[in-house]
Amino acid sequence: MSKFAVMSRFLSIDYGTVRVGLAVTDPLQIIATGLATVPTNDIFSFLTDYMAKEKIEGIVVGEPRNLKNKFDEMAAPTIAFIDKLQKFFPSVPVYRVDERFTSRMALRAMIDGGMKKTKRRDKGLVDKISATLILQTFMEMKLKGER
Fold first, then answer.
1. Are strands 94-98 and 56-63 parallel, antiparallel or unpaired?
2. How far is 27 from 6, CA to CA, in rounded Å?
């Protein structure tokens, strides 16, 4: 038996009705990295395949809210997705994180990183970066003991 425990990852989801941005931590849960952008219709088969290969400790889903901290128009589809996620993977805890400003922050990170305008128009890339920001927020909350 190895003296090192098998570490698990957290997976983050930026849910959309067209596509889903995904990010994942490293096995030591130190770094959040963009994983993929998947068409919404394919998300459950993607997650099933991914979780067959990787140990996932929990799934973090961005919760859409507006500036007044109320649910926005994406709340109903996102909540329905979370319910389905919990039924599909009952042994994996699902956490919700406020995702306000993540798309704007993702775009700002792309600009600050010197990304060309044509690349910044790639909505899938924005979704993947947004998922990474959601996961980073969750990890910071976890460190502070807020989760």
1. parallel
2. 8
User: Model-level pTM?
Assistant: 0.81
DSSP 121: T
pLDDT (tens, 9 = 90+) of the chain, 147 residues, equals 445 555 899 999 999 999 999 999 999 999 999 999 999 999 999 999 999 999 999 999 998 876 666 666 778 899 999 999 999 999 999 999 887 655 555 556 655 666 666 655 556 677 888 899 899 889 888 777 766
Query: What's the chain's Rg over C-alpha atoms?
Result: 15
Domain residue extents for the chain: 9-144
Q: Domain 9-144 class?
A: alpha beta
Burial readout 46-55 (b: 16 or more C-beta within 10 A, e: otherwise): ebeebeeeee
